[in-house]
Amino acid sequence: MKITAVIPARYASSRLPGKPLKDICGKPMIWWVYNQVKSTSLFDSVICAIDDDRIKDICEKYNLDYIMTKSDHPDHIARIHEVSEKIVSDFYICINGDEPLISKECIAPVIPNKCEEKPFFNGAFRILTDPAETIDFAKIKLVISDQTGKCLYMSRTPVPYPRGSLFFNYKKYVGVECFNKAALDFFVSHPMGDLEKIEDIDHLRFLENGIDLHFNEVKSDSISVDTPKDLEKVRTIMAKRLHQEE
Fold first, then answer.
1. Domains in the chain, CATH or no CATH each
2. What is the per-residue pLDDT across 194-221, written as a single tens digit (0 to 9) for each?
3. What is the mean pLDDT of the chain?
């Protein structure tokens, strides 16, 4: 079974332009993500899916394998699909390029044990413990059935609403995803639905078309860098880690 890790790294982030190149303790963010993924030894290859010569220059400077993809992809899944047209693999594991603290423990649970022919998606979530993250629209929340383990909905608002009970935990999407080729082909061949347009969450295209989404819980302190505040938080954590290793 061949498994390829793909790190989408787009320069023109709306909330944090030039995000892949933001400095974290002397190295660009994409360097941290790539080396964290490479160190897991879970993949046949690790590829940065980039769209800008400035990111290309950094990849070449630090010897990071990359594929230059089109700059006008509407979402990261379409960018991964372009990679899947160039690299044949049984599964494509997407690790978002804004997850510099990602660990093997976050990635391994999303990798399936066998190949799948029909569209297949597997993802990761963690329990939210920070109230600020719960109300942050940049952090995607999940509703997952306890009976089936399937994802019922994804939202930027805190869901479900605690009217009948307080005995539950909010679940946050973690930027690690597994697609097979059939899922990627399905996604790019179907139009955006109403819920996807409203929430601005790509994965709702699968749910709106009856494709199951599965998520595995991971124990993680990984932080997706969506804002300048997230970046400062990650810099502080990384600096402490480096200091402890000295």
1. 3-245 (3.90.550.10)
2. 999 999 999 999 999 999 999 999 987 7
3. 93
Whether 165 has a pLDDT exceeding 80, the answer reads yes
* Alpha-carbon separation of residue 57 from 5, 39, 54 (angstroms): 20, 22, 5
Predicted local distance difference test score (pLDDT) of residue 13: 76
DSSP structural state of residue 17: T
The token pair at 77 is: 């899944």
DSSP H or E run through 153:
strand 151-155
Do 221 and 101 meet the contact criterion of CB atoms below 8 Å apart? yes
Contact 206, 190 (CB under 8 A): no
Q: Name the residue with tokens 């709702």.
A: 204
CA dist., res. 35 & res. 180, Å (int): 23
Query: Given a cut of 80, is residue 222 above it in pLDDT?
Result: no
Nearest CA to 65 out of 89, 88, 83 is that of 83
Which SS3 state, helix, strand or coil, does residue 156 take? coil
What single-letter amino acid sits at 109?
P
3-state secondary structure of 145: coil
**Cβ contact 1:89 at 8 Å:** no
Distant-in-sequence, close-in-space partners of 71: CB < 8 Å, separation ≥ 6: 12, 51, 52
Task: Look at residue 197 in the predicted model and tell me its pLDDT.
Answer: 97
Residue 171 near residue 125, CB atoms below 8 Å: yes
